Amino acid sequence: MDIVTAQEMYEWDRAALDAAGIEGKMLMESAGRAVADDMVRHIRKQDKVIVLIGSGNNGGDGFVIARTLLNRGYDIEAWQVVPDEKITGDARVHKEIFMASGFSVRPYSSLEKLMQSFQRADIIIDAMLGIGVKGRLRNPIAEIVEAANGLSVFRMAVDLPSGLPADEGIVDFDAFHADYTTVIAAPKMSAFLQHTRPYYGDYRIVEIGLPTRKLPPVNRGLWRKEDVRRTLPVRGKNSHKGSHGKGVMVGGSLLMPGSIAMAGRAALRSGVGLLTIATVERAISSISPYLQEATFVDMEEKEGALTGQATDQLSGYDGVAIGMGMGRTRGAKRLLEAIVQGVDAPMLIDADGLYHLKEILDVVKERQSPTVLTPHPGEFAHLTGLSIRDVLQSPFSCSREFAAKYGVYLVLKGPSTIITSPDGKQRVDVSGNAGLAKGGSGDVLSGILFAMMLQTDSLMDALGNGCVIHGCTAESLTEEKHSKTDLLASDVIEGLSRTFRTISSASR
Ligand SMILES: NC(=O)C1=CN([C@@H]2O[C@H](COP(=O)(O)OP(=O)(O)OC[C@H]3O[C@@H](n4cnc5c(N)ncnc54)[C@H](O)[C@@H]3O)[C@@H](O)[C@H]2O)[C@@H](O)CC1
Ligand SMILES: [K+]
After folding, report:
1. Cβ(12) to ligand 1 under 6 A?
2. What pLDDT, in 10s, does the model give residues 197-253?
3. Are 55 and 70 in contact (CB under 8 A)?
4. Are 20 and 72 in contact (CB under 8 A)?
5. What domains can you pick out in the chain, each with its CATH number?
6. 56 CA to middle of ligand 1, Å?
7. What are the transmembrane regions (predicted)?
8. Residue 358 C-alpha to ligand 1 middle, in angstroms?
9. CA 410, 350, 502 angle in degrees (round to 5)?
10. What is the ipTM for the molecules in this complex?
11. Distance from Cα 223 to the centre of ligand 1, integer Å
């Protein structure tokens, strides 16, 4: 499922006409009907529904929606919130069809008049502005939105809430606060940003008849459970432990043995063939009871933390994961640099590894094997020198720029996790819930991602799958036996069994 910017959506619109001859008014009819079909799931026959109609094509959709619902006997009041001369093009065609069908529209004259209708309404449908919004809302839409947001009605938006930008990077806006949005054709970027996501409420995407084979490709898409089912490698009958990757994890310290233990256990539960933990000797006895299936390499230490530059013990592996619990000492940084430079294998770098990485990004750039970085926004801000605010406002472009500059795969974690390849492809995972907002979750995710990396040739599939498996496990645990409050990262590790069982049984 592609995720689009406003411009990409307009390009699709154009392709529908140019490549397939689908005229705008046809597309509007099918969009409006698809939205109405979706919205009726929330509307009862006795509900009083107000449809607010604006000047552009979003308003045009509004005429189709209002007509469709009126034809089906729903109690609909259509309000046109802009002067008649502003209704042009395809929207004008649909206004005429609406009127010729025997329905009438109320012209907006003052907020007081509209408020009288609002007071009696159960549901407000916002078809005032869509992806064509520019700048802050102007009156009368600004005052209508403000009034509607203050009512205790059910608010539904067509395509996206009026006033909300479709793209990233815009923070200066007011917008309709929807409880539910029916998104047309493809989710817009703003459905995945921290500052704009809440305005959508729940949302669903409806298909409107765009010619999918003729649309210009978009390099950005949602990665969901069905994608995992499609791409998760099947364990062959004749496979042996070597077929599933031989990985080494470097990290842990005397006082921080937990993170690498959790990452290691998550990797084992995610099917890695052979796992070695490279850590300080004195931490091994506390980690090993938790990881009976792993082997251990004791590394040079200084005051309980990893140090040195030895990389010879780390050769011969199919992949390296580094950083979990390794600490922020100078010795750890030296070791990281030596490994990043000297070990030629796919590498995942997380946690303290990311902290140290800032000063050696040029070394990362020179690596021949793929490098995967898994920062949360704070770590990413540290790595890039941007503010967390900038990262959150424009995560898609910040990620893309960074991944291209340093030739890395980037997993920018959050409620919407954005995975970016060095060549700019992006996948978004929205699985998971607030139960994961705890220490240890990142370690578990790293372990899963590492195991996935070792079991497929497609790194983007591996990273998408790892994120979705992690998030879906948390979701099913909080549906069944945990709350978001008590869920621990270690519960997620044990919950992986069920996720793998259900995902693989559904794929056969
Ligand atoms: N494939 C597509 O692109 C399709 C688009 N459709 C609909 O068309 C919408 C896009 O249509 P448009 O490009 O006409 O754009 P909009 O319908 O979003 O609105 C453009 C209008 O809003 C006014 N406006 C812009 N910024 C404003 C502000 N800050 N305050 C007040 N008024 C403002 C402009 O004067 C213009 O008349 C989509 O969101 C969707 O609902 C559908 O009809 C079907 C297919
Ligand atoms: K809208």
Report:
1. yes
2. 999 999 999 999 999 999 999 999 999 999 999 999 887 777 777 778 999 999 999
3. no
4. no
5. 6-218 (3.40.50.10260), 239-506 (3.40.1190.20)
6. 4
7. none
8. 43
9. 75
10. 0.97
11. 28
